[in-house]
Amino acid sequence: MPEGPSLVLLREDTERFVGRRVMRVEGNSTQDIQRLRGRTVRAIRTWGKHYLIQFDGFALRIHLLMFGSYRINERKPNKAARLSLGFSKGEELNLYACSVRFLEGDLDEHYDWSVDVMADAWDAKQARRTLRAQPDTLVADVLLDQDVFAGVGNIIKNEVLHRIRVQPESTLGALPPRKLGELVTQAREYSFDFLAWKREYVLKKNWQVHAKRICPRDGTPLSFRKSLGVAERRAFYCETCQRLYR
């Protein structure tokens, strides 16, 4: 599942379509996508893992789910697009294996931008207050909670917890205040590191624990859980340098 930083790259790649009219609409989405024909793109935005194309009076929300992808000015061979938008000069945006949904009215009525770790409106103090209110929640689960850390996915979760030396089954209430602060700070800072590495095509080279076997910090084998927490996502962590707070 693409994480918040990858959606920021998609937004940047498609900002060329802002101010342009949709000339052609195709796709196998069950939504009334033909209502987009003739409409002008007013803005391209993202919130967490949501890609948002804004028009007058409504917006189109795209969620790339687990295996979604996109192509600009090219198509996947032998693969039907969920949504294909054509513009002038033969340019097009093709979206595959994604969720398509219309959001009526103002986007500000649908989203709290202060919980998006990539947004200028990100509110770290609010995040800390939210964490303190749920002491029994596992840190692995709260990092994947899109109402708290919109845009954080499983890769960022594993890497942040290794960076701050905390095991994923630690509970929020057991974390010292300094560690709680590090959790909030690094959820955002690592997301921007992720974005920079993604731009330079070196993201996987900078993974410390995700999909790895040996801890680069102390050289011991990493622990692996195929399904951990309420979210039941994969966890990679080091029992030597990451502490369990319970």
TrEMBL record:
Residue stretches spanning the membrane: none
UniProt cross-references to InterPro entries, sorted A to Z: FPG_cat (IPR012319), FPG_N (IPR035937), H2TH_FPG (IPR015886), Ribosomal_uS13-like_H2TH (IPR010979)
Residue ranges occupied by any Formamidopyrimidine-DNA glycosylase catalytic domain in the UniProt entry: 2-90
Domain of life: Bacteria
Pfam families recorded: Fapy_DNA_glyco, H2TH
Residue runs in coiled coils: none
Biological processes, Gene Ontology terms: base-excision repair
UniProt keyword annotations, A-Z: DNA damage, DNA repair, DNA-binding, Endonuclease, Glycosidase, Hydrolase, Lyase, Multifunctional enzyme, Nuclease
Catalysed reaction, written as an equation: Hydrolysis of DNA containing ring-opened 7-methylguanine residues, releasing 2,6-diamino-4-hydroxy-5-(N-methyl)formamidopyrimidine
UniProt-listed Gene3D superfamilies: 1.10.8.50, MutM-like, N-terminal (3.20.190.10)
Molecular function terms, GO-annotated: damaged DNA binding; DNA-(apurinic or apyrimidinic site) endonuclease activity; lyase activity; oxidized purine nucleobase lesion DNA N-glycosylase activity; zinc ion binding
Family assignment from sequence similarity: Belongs to the FPG family.
Protein's name according to its UniProt entry: Endonuclease
